[in-house]
Design goal:
This protein has 75 residues and is mainly α. The protein is 79% helix and 0% strand.
């Protein structure tokens, strides 16, 4: 891969600058926060697309679904 001037400057910075480790740490933290934000947005979108019934707890909903589907199959 050909090294661009920007990449060359960055490598020189990483190699020679005493604060380079701190800069890398900040960049990794920012990238992690970007990832967490993207994941949160994804999960929020999924929940908006599939609203849950709030009149029954989740386990009661699953039990009711199982009993309905079992009753249909026993027929």
């Amino acid at each position: 891969m050909e090294r661009t001037p920007h990449r060359q400057a960055r490598e020189d910075f990483d190699r020679t600058c005493p604060v380079a480790p701190a800069v890398r740490h900040i960049e990794r933290s920012r990238e992690f926060l970007d990832l967490v934000t993207a994941f949160r947005s994804f999960v929020a979108g999924r929940w908006r697309g599939h609203p849950r019934r709030t009149d029954r707890p989740l386990f009661a909903q699953a039990a009711a679904h199982r009993s309905r589907s079992t009753a249909v199959h026993r027929g």
